[in-house]
Amino acid sequence: MSMSAAEFQATIREADFTEHVIAEAEAAGWLVYHIPDWMYRTAMAKWRDDGHRRGRWWPPRGFPDLILVRAHPPPPELLFVELKSRYGKQSVDQIAWRDALVACGQTVELWRPKDWHWIVARLAPKPKEGRE
User: Torsions phi, psi of 66, nearest 5?
Assistant: First the structure.
């Protein structure tokens, strides 16, 4: 039995939502940078075990989930995206990163499963400008 769109949006885990967004972005021609949670946890465990960089976090706490870059077609775009589940809340660190990136003129967006149709449209290639 398949799930309705509303059920999907209400129950999808953030990790699964992330995978859907990454697949959609790559299919639409974006370069995607993402550090999976398992890699983050593995790196931190190694650093903790080795006593390396105590007190430092990699990636920094609160850094956006995705960095998306698309150079073609023009104009080029750089986009920072924070992904949240239906009820997920942004942490103080995530808000600080968002505010700092926006202050530097960067685009930072918060996406949730309920925004899926908008996300697909946002990621879609832009029509070429100029004469046909």
Answer: -130, 145
Q: Which of 29, 113, 19 is nearest to 66 (CA)?
A: 19
What single-letter amino acid sits at 66? L
Query: Model pTM?
Result: 0.80
Per DSSP, 55 falls in state T
Structure tokens at 121: 């449209």
How far, CA to CA in Å, does 111 sit from each of 43, 62, 84, 103? 26, 15, 6, 20
Residue 128 has pLDDT above 90, yes or no: no
Q: What is the pLDDT of residues 2-48, one digit of tens each?
A: 556 777 677 889 889 999 999 999 999 999 999 876 666 565 566 56
Q: State the DSSP string of 74-121.
A: SSPEEEEEEE--TT----HHHHHHHHHHHHTT-EEEEE-GGGHHHHHH
